[in-house]
Amino acid sequence: MATPEFNNLGDLIRRDQDPNKLALIDLGGEVAPREYTYAQLDALANAIARGLLKRGYARGERIAILSANRAENLAAFYGIMRAGLVAVPVNFKFPRAMIAFVLEDADARLVFCDAPRKGEVPAGVETITFNEEGRSNHDRPAGAAGSMGFDAFLDPGSFTAVVPRENEVAMFLYTSGSTGKPKGVMLSHASHIWVAQTRLGNNDWSSHRFLIAAPLYHMNALALATLVSVAHATIILLPQFTARAYIEAIEKYHATWLTAVPPMIAMMLQEKDLLAHTDLSSVKSLRMGSAPVSASLMAAIHKVLPRAQVVNAFGTTEGGPVVFGPHPRGLPTPEMSVGYPHPEVQLRLDDGQTKGAEQGVLEMKSPALLQGYHKAALRNPPLKNPFTADGYYITGDVFRRDPEGFHYFVGRSDDMFVSGGENIYPGEVEKLLEAHPGVQQAAVVPVEDEIKGQKPAAFVIKRAGANVTAEELKQHALANGPAYQHPRWIWFVDALPLATTNKIDRNVLISEAAERVKAGG
C-alpha cells in the first residue's frame, strides 16, 4: 500500500483511505472503552490546533502534555504539531520538582493534563484539563494563569496543518533523568516522518491492531502511534501498563501486534493462572527492545505466543527506533541478535581506541537523529555534545558484532562497573543467571568493596515451583562464565522495581543492595 507524502508529524492521517476505519480503542479516560474513527480523531486534533492558534500561541512555542494514556493525550500531541507548535510530553511519574524543572526547561506556555495530574502543574502555569468541561472563556489571552476545561477550549472546524521548515522541531522528549536532570531531546517533523514511513515500507499493516501500554511520553509509544497512523491500522491504548490488564486487553480486543521492554513481558509471564485460560492466539508480532533479552525469556515467550514473530529490537530517544534490520544476504537473524545495520543507517562500534571495533559503544548516523538538547549550553554544567566530530550520535549503548555483521546488545556503558580491574556489564550476568531453569528474571547491580572497588550482587525472581538456592546459582555462574562475573550476593524477591519507562530501576536496587550488605545480608 503506497503511502502519500507527509509534511507535518501531527498530520499523518491517510485521507486516501476510509475515514470511518477504527483508529483507536481507548481504555483510559473515565469510561472505557471509547472508540474513535480516523475521521473523529482527525477532527479532534484539528479542534485542538484551532484552539491553540485562536488563543494566540506563536509558532515554535512549547505546549506540554501531562497525562496518562488516553485519546485526548494523543489528539493533543497531533494538534499541537499541526498548529506549528512544539509538543512536550512530560513523564507524569516524575516527582513534582522534576515536572516543574521540565516545564521550565522547555519554556512550556500551556499544559494539557488529566484531572489526577492537575495538581502536579506548578502554580501560575495555564492548564487545559481533559476531563473537565471548565469555563467557556475562549478569548482569554494565551499565557494567562489559571485553568480551563478541554471541551470549552476546543474550536471545531477544518484546519490545514502548518508546513514545517527544514529541520523544524516537532517535539521535545525528555529523557528519564536517571543519571541527573532530564534532557530535552529536540526532534524534527522530518526525522519522525522518515521513521514512520521507513518502518512501514511497502507493507500493508492496515488490518493489524497494535496494543500500546507504554506511556505516551516515551519514544516507544509515540513512534508506534505514528506508525499505526501511516499504516491506517488500529491502536488499542491502555492508560498504563499492568500485566493483568495487558493480557486481558490482548484477548478482549484481539491485539495482533505488541511492543514492550523485556521487564514488561517478564511480568506478564508471571501471571500463570491468567495466562492458562486466556486466548492470545491473535498475536502475530512482538517487538522488544531497550534492555537485554535472555534466552530463557525468549523461550518462555515462544511458549506463550507460539504464533508470534518475536523481534529483538533496539532504539533510542535521540536516534529513534530504525537502527537494525534483516541481513542483506537473507541470513536468518540469530535469536539473541538485534539484527544487521539498516541500509539507511550508518553504524560503528567504538572501544575507546578503534572506531569499528568488534565490541564497543554504538555510534550512529541516520535521518532520525535529534537536533540537539534544549538549553544544552545553559545547564550547569553544560550538557555534553552527543555527537562525534564527524557527526555520529554516541548512544552510550555497548554492542558486539559477529563475523556476519549481526549485532548483540551487551548493556549500557553507564551501567557497567569495574570489579578488580574487570569490566562487568549487568546484562551479561543477568543472561547468565536466567539461563538457569530455576530463574524467571534477574537484575544485577554493583556493591562497593574496599578491595575490588565493586562487586556484583543479584536480585532474582524464581520460576514458579523452583527450589533453587543462592549457592546453587553462584555455582551455576562460576561454571558458565568468568569467575569475576559471579554475584557475591544473591537475594530472592517477588518483583523488581520498574522505572518510569518500565525498565528495571537500577538506582533503587543499588541502594537496596547496599543496605542489605550493610545489614549483613
> Can you count the beta strands?
26
CATH superfamily of the largest domain: ANL, N-terminal domain
Provide mean pLDDT, rounded: 90
Largest pleated sheet: 7 strands, mixed
Number of domains: 3
Q: Looking at CATH, which topology of the largest domain would you report? A: Rossmann fold
CATH architectural group of the largest domain: 3-Layer(aba) Sandwich
CATH class of the largest domain: Alpha Beta
Name the quaternary structure: single chain
Structural class by helix and strand composition:
alpha/beta
Outline, from the CA principal axes? Answer: globular
Query: What is the percentage of strand-forming residues?
Result: 15-25%
| Order of strands across the main sheet | 2-1-11-10-12-13-14
Poorly predicted sequence stretches spanning 5 or more consecutive residues: 136-145
The number of helical runs is 13
Rg is 23 Å
First-last Cα distance = 60 Å
Helix content: 25-40%
Plain-language structure description:
By secondary structure, the chain is of the alpha/beta class. The chain has 13 helices and 26 strands. 26% of the residues lie in helices and 24% in strands. A hairpin with a 7-residue loop joins strand 1 and strand 2. Helix 8 crosses helix 10 (295-304). The chain is globular, with a radius of gyration of 23 Å. Residues 136-145 have low confidence and may be disordered.
Task: Supply the key terms.
seven-stranded mixed beta sheet; 26 strands; GMP Synthetase, Chain A, domain 3; Rossmann fold; alpha/beta; Luciferase, domain 3
Quick structural gist:
This protein is α/β, with parallel strands linked by helices and 521 residues long. It contains 13 helices and 26 strands.
